[in-house]
Write a structure and sequence with these properties.
Keywords: Coiled coil, Metal-binding, Zinc, Zinc-finger. Residues 10-50 form the RING-type domain. One of its GO terms (molecular function) is zinc ion binding. The chain is mostly helical. The chain has a domain at 1-76: Zinc/RING finger domain, C3HC4 (zinc finger) (Herpes Virus-1, 2-Layer Sandwich). 65% of the residues lie in helices and 4% in strands. It has helices at 35-40, 65-74, 83-100, 104-118, 127-220; strands spanning 24-26, 32-34, 59-60. It has a 3-stranded antiparallel β-sheet with strand order 2-1-3. The model is unreliable at 71-76 (pLDDT under 50).
Length: 221
C-alpha cells in the first residue's frame, strides 16, 4: 500500500490526495495526479513532463489514509510569521509575469515555488494565490504546447522545402532527359538520311557495274 506523507497533494490542483475523484493515480512516466485532474487534461499528456499516455495507462494507487490522518494529528505544521508576505510576493510575481511576460525557465521556477508554498497549507488559505497559480500553470502548459506545435510546424516546413527542392531537381533532370531525347532523335534522323544516301549510291554503283559488264560482253563477242 502506498504511504503518503502529510500534505501530499496533486501537482495540478494542489488539493490533498484522498478517495474517489481525489484518489492518486500514476501514469507511465511515474508522475502521480488525482483522478479528476487526469480526466480533465486537455490532451492525454503528463502535465509535468508532457509524456503521452492513454486511459488504459492510468493506475489507481491505494493509500493509507489512516496513517496520513494520524501523522497530521501528531505533526501540525506551524505557519511561518512571514507566510503572508511570501504569499503576497508570489502573487505580485505572478501578476508581473502576466503583465510583462517571462522566460520559460522563470515561469517554470515560479510555478514550482507556488506549488511548494501552497501544497502543505489548507486549500481554504490564499484562494486568490491558488487561482493565480492554476492560471499560471495552465499558461505554462499552453505555452509549452504552442512551442511544441511551432517546432512541429517548422519541421513540416523544412520537410516541404526539402521535398520542393527534390521536385525541382527531378524536374530539371526530366528536362535534361527531354533535351537528350531530342538530340538522339535528330542524330537518328541524320543517320537515317545518311543511310538512305549510301543506299542510293550503292544502287547507282550496281547499275554502273551491270552496264560495264554488258558492254564488256558485247566487245568480247
Amino acid at each position: 500500500m502506498l504511504s503518503l506523507g502529510p500534505g501530499s497533494a496533486c501537482d495540478v490542483c494542489l488539493e490533498p490526495f484522498g478517495t474517489d475523484l481525489k484518489a492518486p493515480c500514476s501514469i507511465p512516466c511515474g508522475h502521480v495526479f488525482c483522478v479528476s485532474c487526469l480526466h480533465n487534461v486537455a490532451r492525454p499528456t503528463c502535465p509535468l513532463c508532457r509524456t503521452s499516455f492513454s486511459s488504459w495507462d492510468i493506475t489507481k494507487l491505494h493509500i493509507d489514509l489512516e496513517s496520513i490522518a494520524a501523522a497530521l494529528s501528531v505533526e501540525q505544521m506551524p505557519v511561518p510569521s512571514n507566510t503572508q508576505e511570501h504569499a503576497r510576493q508570489l502573487q505580485n510575481r505572478i501578476t508581473q509575469v502576466a503583465q510583462s511576460g517571462a522566460t520559460e525557465l522563470q515561469t517554470t521556477q515560479l510555478t514550482e515555488e507556488c506549488k511548494v508554498f501552497l501544497a502543505p497549507l489548507p486549500k481554504t488559505m490564499y484562494t486568490d494565490l491558488r487561482t493565480a497559480y492554476k492560471m499560471l500553470h495552465y499558461m505554462c502548459n499552453v505555452k509549452h504546447l504552442y512551442i511544441e506545435q511551432g517546432r512541429t510546424l517548422n519541421q513540416h516546413l523544412r520537410n516541404i522545402t526539402t521535398l520542393t527542392q527534390e521536385v525541382d531537381r527531378l524536374k530539371a533532370g526530366f528536362e535534361a532527359l527531354k533535351i537528350e531525347k531530342r538530340r538522339l532523335e535528330e542524330a537518328w534522323q541524320n543517320v537515317s538520311a545518311e543511310r538512305d544516301n549510301v543506299a542510293s549510291e550503292c544502287e547507282k554503283l550496281h547499275e554502273q557495274l551491270d552496264n560495264a559488264e554488258a558492254q564488256m560482253l558485247l566487245v568480247t563477242e
